[in-house]
Predict the 3D structure of the following.
Amino acid sequence: MHHKIGLGLITTITVGATVLVVLALSASNPGRLGPLGITLWFVALLVALSGITAILLYVAKSQLRREDTAASRLSSSLRQGLLLGGGVTICLGLESLRQLGVRDVILIVILAGLIEFYFRTRQ
């Protein structure tokens, strides 16, 4: 029962963050948003990407891994969604500052892989 509440909460927050990102993109520009607005936009983007990825992973795992409990599928999907959404958001942030290089992408992928490895071996 708790996983349904968690999934509903994730979906609600994801929809809200996605609406904020789309509205900010269509209604304004970075010059008008200012530094605080851009920071909040990147946080909303992180939440939206992480939530969308987590929901998609949960649906896929529900079809493929029926032997796992719903709560474990939700927690692993949320963790992996946060890692993927965070990696993409970090890359977009660095690219917007014109600081993104191939080494940065490699380091971000390695870091995400190490974090996922740590959490999988800890279970």
User: Anything to note?
Assistant: Residues 2-122 form one domain. DSSP finds four helices and no strands in the chain.
